[in-house]
């Protein structure tokens, strides 16, 4: 198993099963939680702290979709190689484990689980990751398993 130090791998051939690294941090604000919820997920526990205190969550929390969007931002800011990254055909096993609160500082740990060279397009491969998202107290808040298409190293 390889613990990655330094920059993210650029091309499909640079990845190894078991390779691990962390990216982040992202600081969550109350204003951003409310703004996202107002536009995309207007449930009261994402919009109003007083009302949210009476909810199952016990206070204002980010939409799970907002948390996923914040992690996409971390991915783009810290990982995506403009030449190698080709997008994603999807995500498996998305779980929201613990509420994300205003003031939380999120980081994401990544591990390479599978590597699949394309049979029909030899210039690309698909990397399957296991992502775990933690807050500043190292409490797990979200898990998901994206599949990412990565360009092979040019000849």
Summarize the entry for a quick read:
It is built from four helices and five strands. It is of the alpha+beta class and 155 residues long.
Would you kindly provide a written description of the structure presented here, covering whatever features stand out?
This protein has 155 residues and is an alpha+beta fold. It has a domain at 12-28 and 63-151: Hotdog Thioesterase (Thiol Ester Dehydrase, Chain A, Roll), CATH 3.10.129.10. It has four helices and five strands. The protein has a five-stranded antiparallel β-sheet with strand order 1-3-4-5-2. A hairpin with a 6-residue loop joins β3 and β4 (124-134). It is elongated and about 60 Å long. The model has no long low-confidence stretch (mean pLDDT 91).
Structural class determined from secondary elements: alpha+beta
State the helix count. Answer: 4
Helix content: 10-25%
**Main beta sheet:** 5 strands, antiparallel
Share of residues in strands: 25-35%
Secondary structure tally: strands: 5
Kindly provide the name of the CATH class of the domain at 12-28 and 63-151: Alpha Beta
Any descriptors?
155 residues, alpha+beta, Thiol Ester Dehydrase, Chain A, five-stranded antiparallel beta sheet
How are the SSEs ordered, and which strands pair?
Layout: E1 20-27, H1 30-40, H2 44-47, H3 49-52, H4 64-78, E2 90-96, E3 105-117, E4 124-134, E5 140-151
Antiparallel strand pairs: 1-3, 2-5, 3-4, 4-5
């Amino acid at each position: 198993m390889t613990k990655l130090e330094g920059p993210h791998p650029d091309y499909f051939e640079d990845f190894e099963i078991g390779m691990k690294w962390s990216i982040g941090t992202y600081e969550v604000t109350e204003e951003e939680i409310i703004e996202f919820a107002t536009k995309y997920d207007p449930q009261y526990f994402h919009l109003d702290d007083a009302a949210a205190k009476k909810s199952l969550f016990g206070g204002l929390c980010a939409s799970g979709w907002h948390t996923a969007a914040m992690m996409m931002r971390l991915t783009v800011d810290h990982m995506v190689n403009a030449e190698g990254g080709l997008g994603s055909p999807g995500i498996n096993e998305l779980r929201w484990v613990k509420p994300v609160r205003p003031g939380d500082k999120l980081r994401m740990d990544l591990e390479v689980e599978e590597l699949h060279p394309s049979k029909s397009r030899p210039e690309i491969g698909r990397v399957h990751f296991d992502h775990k998202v933690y807050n500043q107290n190292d409490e797990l808040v979200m898990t998901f398993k994206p599949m990412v298409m990565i360009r092979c190293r040019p000849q």
